[in-house]
């Protein structure tokens, strides 16, 4: 019955089958694509012809006698899936001296259903002629034991990866009320065998309409067992406050860093079978997710909602106290309202307490005694400073406080007790502002006359309080022209200098001087004399503006020096040096020379004296 | 001084009074109203003048009047505006400190970073960055064309890079401070019938929403930005506009109604 159903579905698929056109990219030698219609023969087969449901086969179409690109639409068969992109193989050979060509198209086939699947004859176009591709059968057997084992292993791998690290959090109640705060905790489970180097960040919420309190430092619990594995659990206590009624999805994610051995053994592939200890190589980030939770948020009931209700949801008790019940007129007292219990303290406004003709009441100071991050359980205190405006036995008015209990689903109204204060008239009442200044007798009095002097002239007007940015100032950009112009001039001058002979001369001179020094260091007279003569030629030739100083002979150099205002002694000494160089080069290498170092010093001295 | 020069001075003075601008007229009207003891009228004239243009003296006088009326939030707002225009006036700073004291608001102590990388220092840091850039360009040209010294290059590149990074950071920090100033508001008073000095920051934009926390008159808050980098606000059905604000230390956050605060620098509409 199930098989019939399956076939029906597959037949429907077959009806909706879109014709697949394939065109094989042109490549190969077209000389081999010659096709004689009479000699073209087509085969088709599955390889292997019998597989299990978990295996794969190849549908092959072999064209003998042509290598031309065929065109056609391959029929789709219900029960098997045939790939769109075939592998193409061309071959040419000589059989008994007769040339033979062949084109082979291979399509990957994945079985979907058990049974024998037949691809019926179908038409193919080669050149201008149509040919029929013969039938081919594929037999698909039910999955064998090996397939089942492999599938189970794969599922187990996936399950193990999920169990390596996961987030758990629980909604304490099946449904919540709008504006309600509940306390819960988020637990990050990390398998002890997972080599985690650090938790990259605290879990983050996914999903709106529910706010959670800030996450502080987690509590660590070791040796927690789940799924027969030992875990370390990091817990973040949080409070969760709902905002809008309705069903809201909530889940958490975080990422941890784990050490992996190599890229091939990534934890995302199979950390447990390839490399159970993950190795000690590089680190990778692993995203950890919680299950998706649906939070049902109900609106607060409108029935029996007291007028004094200002949004407190939870279970509370209220108490009040005063720091003194007997004071003098003008003395302030502290009136403290403590609300204790569990609930949405973070959304709780101060109880309304207004000034009247009996008491002047200042704004309250807030304080919370409990976990200030979650603000779920503890004592919220509001401290008012009350100044009596009359003397006598006065009553501090009681406060009406109402809240909604989400467990009993009911509103509750409580009233605080009335405190009686005996206020004696004392001295004549004076304004508290004046009182405060008189109280501070030891403190140098602030001379308010010196303050708040009215200016009688308006000063200079501006249209906006926002100061004009220097970036928009024309002066700023105008001033930029000075460094810009200087830079351009410097650049152009440098460029001109670089292109002129001076730079080339300097470089050549530097090179020759270096060569001379190297020659002295390695005691190489040949190099030294060669470099010295080049240097003398270059310096004297450049000084007397000869276009090609390298071509000057010794006689020409001496005659140039004679044309200048050099003294005879200097000319004679340079001539002597040149003679020594010539002697070394052309004749008398055995002759005694002064050391190269002394000669270098002499040449330097002589060249400096040139005029 | 010749008689003709004296006449010219007199003539120019007359011209100034005859053709004084509207904001000048309103300012002097306010001075007269204040002198006659009509504080409310004086405030009205000052506010009208401030709609046209601003001066430090105008906002200083306005802040003084609000202080006398016990409206410390307004007083702090206008002292801050006056100091924006004349930050060197120590009298304004002292008055502001006194107003903070009376309002019971803790004036944030200026830190080193806030002082030397404040919005006021932005032009200074831009000029420093500018000098560093030009100097670097000139030095590179010099080394390339005039002095092929690897040692000079070796020492100058890290120094110039460090100077560039430091001055760029300073410009960036000061720009951020300037941007924050454009989003700064001062809490004035609650818009309910009691008109108290405690203003509640709501969890949602609406009168009936629960309060997240409360702030006092004179406290400074920063308006959040939306995804388009505009002030984050919500217009409710009755036309009220609510802004999402937070304290500079991020401890208090919530929605505040438009008439419960004043902009330090009015946004350009």
Count of DSSP E strands of chain B?
8
CATH class of the largest domain in chain B: Mainly Alpha
Q: Count the E strands of chain A.
A: 33
- Second CATH tier, the architecture of the largest domain in chain A: Sandwich
CATH superfamily of the largest domain in chain B: Tetratricopeptide repeat domain
Number of domains of chain B: 3
Please tell me how large the radius of gyration of chain A is.
Answer: 50 Å
The amount of beta strand of chain A, in percent, is 35-45%
Sum up the overall morphology of chain B in one term: globular
User: Structural class of the secondary elements of chain A?
Assistant: alpha+beta
Shape of chain A: flat
The CATH architecture classification of the largest domain in chain B is: Alpha Horseshoe
Rg of Cα set of chain B: 25 Å
* Topology pattern of chain B, helix = H, strand = E: HHHHHHHHHEEEEEEEE
Distance between the termini of chain A: 118 Å
From the structure above, extract its key features:
heterodimer; A: 611 residues; alpha+beta; Immunoglobulin-like; seven-stranded mixed β-sheet; six-stranded mixed β-sheet; 10 helices; 25% helix; 36% strand; flat; B: 269 residues; Serine Threonine Protein Phosphatase 5, Tetratricopeptide repeat; SH3 type barrels; six-stranded antiparallel β-sheet; two-stranded antiparallel sheet; 9 helices; 55% helix
How are the SSEs placed, and which strands pair?
The complex is a heterodimer of chains A (611) and B (269).
Chain A: H1 2-15, E1 21-23, E2 41-47, E3 50-52, E4 57-64, E5 71-73, E6 80-82, E7 87-95, E8 98-111, E9 115-119, E10 122-126, E11 129-133, E12 136-141, H2 145-164, E13 165-169, E14 175-177, E15 181-191, E16 196-199, E17 204-206, E18 210-212, E19 219-226, E20 229-242, E21 246-259, E22 283-289, E23 293-298, E24 309-322, E25 326-328, E26 333-343, E27 359-361, E28 365-370, E29 377-388, E30 392-396, E31 400-405, E32 410-415, E33 419-424, H3 432-439, H4 474-479, H5 481-499, H6 501-522, H7 525-543, H8 554-563, H9 568-586, H10 596-608
Parallel strand pairs in A: 3-12, 14-23, 24-31, 25-33
Antiparallel strand pairs in A: 1-5, 2-4, 4-8, 5-10, 6-8, 7-8, 9-12, 10-11, 13-15, 15-20, 16-21, 17-21, 18-20, 19-20, 21-22, 21-23, 24-26, 26-29, 27-29, 28-29, 30-33, 31-32
Helix pairs in contact in A: 6-7, 7-9, 7-10, 8-9
Chain B: H1 3-18, H2 22-35, H3 39-52, H4 56-68, H5 72-85, H6 90-103, H7 112-116, H8 122-145, H9 150-182, E1 184-187, E2 198-202, E3 211-216, E4 220-223, E5 233-235, E6 241-247, E7 253-257, E8 261-263
Antiparallel strand pairs in B: 1-4, 1-8, 2-3, 4-6, 5-6, 6-7
Helix pairs in contact in B: 2-3, 3-4, 4-5, 5-6, 8-9
């Amino acid at each position: 019955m199930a098989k019939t159903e399956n076939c029906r579905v597959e037949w429907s698929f077959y009806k909706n089958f879109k014709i697949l056109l394939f065109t094989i990219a042109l490549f190969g030698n077209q000389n081999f694509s010659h096709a004689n219609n009479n000699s073209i023969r087509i085969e088709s087969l599955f390889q292997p012809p019998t597989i299990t449901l978990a295996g794969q086969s190849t549908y092959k179409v072999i064209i003998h006698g042509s290598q031309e690109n065929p065109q056609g639409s391959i029929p789709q068969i219900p029960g098997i899936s045939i790939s769109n992109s075939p592998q193409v193989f061309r071959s040419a050979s000589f059989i008994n001296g007769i040339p033979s060509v062949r084109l082979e198209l291979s399509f990957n086939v994945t079985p979907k259903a058990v049974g024998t699947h037949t691809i019926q004859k179908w038409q193919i176009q080669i050149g201008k002629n149509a040919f029929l591709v013969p039938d081919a059968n594929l037999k698909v057997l039910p999955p064998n034991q090996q397939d089942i084992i492999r599938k189970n292993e794969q599922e187990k791998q996936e399950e193990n990866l999920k169990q390596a690290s996961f987030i758990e959090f629980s909604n304490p109640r099946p449904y919540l009320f709008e504006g309600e705060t509940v306390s819960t905790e988020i637990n990050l489970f990390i398998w002890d065998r997972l080599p985690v180097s650090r938790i990259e960040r605290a879990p983050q919420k996914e999903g709106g309409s529910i706010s959670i309190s800030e996450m502080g430092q987690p509590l660590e619990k070791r040796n927690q067992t789940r799924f027969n594995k030992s875990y370390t659990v990091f817990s973040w206590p949080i409070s969760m406050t709902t905002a809008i009624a309705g069903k809201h999805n909530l889940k958490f994610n975080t990422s941890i860093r784990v050490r992996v051995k190599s890229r091939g053994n990534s934890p995302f592939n199979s950390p447990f079978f390839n490399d159970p200890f993950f190795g000690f190589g590089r680190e990778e980030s692993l995203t950890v997710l919680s299950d998706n939770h649906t939070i049902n948020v109900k609106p607060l009931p409108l029935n029996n909602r007291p007028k004094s209700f200002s949004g407190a949801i939870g279970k509370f008790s209220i108490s009040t106290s005063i720091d003194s019940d007997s004071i003098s007129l003008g003395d302030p007292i502290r009136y403290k309202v403590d609300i204790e219990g569990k609930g949405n303290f973070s959304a709780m406004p101060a109880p309304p307490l207004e000034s009247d003709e009996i008491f002047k009441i200042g704004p309250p100071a807030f304080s919370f005694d409990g976990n200030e991050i979650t603000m779920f359980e503890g004592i919220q205190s509001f401290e008012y400073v009350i100044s009596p405006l009359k003397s006598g036995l006065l009553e501090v008015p009681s406060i009406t406080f109402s809240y909604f209990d989400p467990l009993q689903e009911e509103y509750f109204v409580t009233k605080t007790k009335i405190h009686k204060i005996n206020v004696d008239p004392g001295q004549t009442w004076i304004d508290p502002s004046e009182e405060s200044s008189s109280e501070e007798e030891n403190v140098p009095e602030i001379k308010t006359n010196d303050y708040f002097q009215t200016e009688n002239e308006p000063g200079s007007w501006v249209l906006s309080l926002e100061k004009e940015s220097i970036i928009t100032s024309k002066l700023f950009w105008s001033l930029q022209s000075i460094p810009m112009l200087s830079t351009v001039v410097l650049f152009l001058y440098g460029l001109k200098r670089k292109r002129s002979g001076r730079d080339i001369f300097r470089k050549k001179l530097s090179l020759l001087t270096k060569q001379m020094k190297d020659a002295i260091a390695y005691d190489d007279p040949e190099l030294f004399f060669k470099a010295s003569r080049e240097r003398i030629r270059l310096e004297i030739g450049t000084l007397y503006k000869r276009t090609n100083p390298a071509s000057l002979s010794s006689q020409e150099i001496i005659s140039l020096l004679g044309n200048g205002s050099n003294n005879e002694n200097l000319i004679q000494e340079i001539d002597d040096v040149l003679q020594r160089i010539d002697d070394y080069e052309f004749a008398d290498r055995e002759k005694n020379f002064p050391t190269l170092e002394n000669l270098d010093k002499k040449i330097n001295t002589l060249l400096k004296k040139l005029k | 001084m010749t008689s003709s020069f004296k006449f010219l001075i007199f003539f120019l003075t007359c011209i100034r009074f005859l053709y004084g601008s509207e904001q000048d007229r309103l300012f002097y009207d306010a001075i007269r109203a204040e002198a006659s003891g009509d504080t409310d009228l004086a405030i009205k004239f000052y506010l009208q003048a401030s709609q046209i243009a601003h001066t430090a003296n105008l906002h200083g006088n306005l802040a003084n009047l609000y202080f006398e009326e016990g409206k410390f939030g307004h007083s702090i707002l206008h002292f801050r505006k006056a100091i924006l225009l004349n930050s060197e006036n120590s009298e304004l700073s002292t008055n502001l400190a006194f107003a903070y004291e009376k309002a019971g608001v803790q004036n944030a102590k200026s830190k080193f970073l806030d002082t030397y990388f404040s919005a006021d220092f932005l032009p200074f840091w831009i000029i420093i960055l500018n000098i560093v850039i030009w100097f670097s360009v000139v030095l590179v040209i010099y080394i390339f064309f005039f002095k092929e010294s690897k040692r000079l290059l070796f020492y100058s590149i890290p120094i110039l890079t460090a100077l560039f990074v430091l001055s760029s950071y300073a410009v960036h920090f000061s720009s951020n401070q300037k941007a924050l100033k454009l989003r700064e508001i001062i809490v004035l008073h609650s818009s309910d019938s009691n008109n108290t000095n405690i203003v509640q920051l709501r969890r949602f934009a609406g009168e009936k929403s629960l309060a997240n926390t409360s702030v006092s008159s004179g406290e400074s808050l920063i308006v959040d930005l939306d995804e388009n980098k505009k002030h984050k606000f919500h217009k409710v059905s009755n036309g009220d506009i609510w802004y999402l604000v937070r304290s500079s230390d991020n401890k208090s956050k919530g929605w505040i109604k438009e008439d419960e605060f004043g902009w330090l620098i009015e946004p350009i509409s």
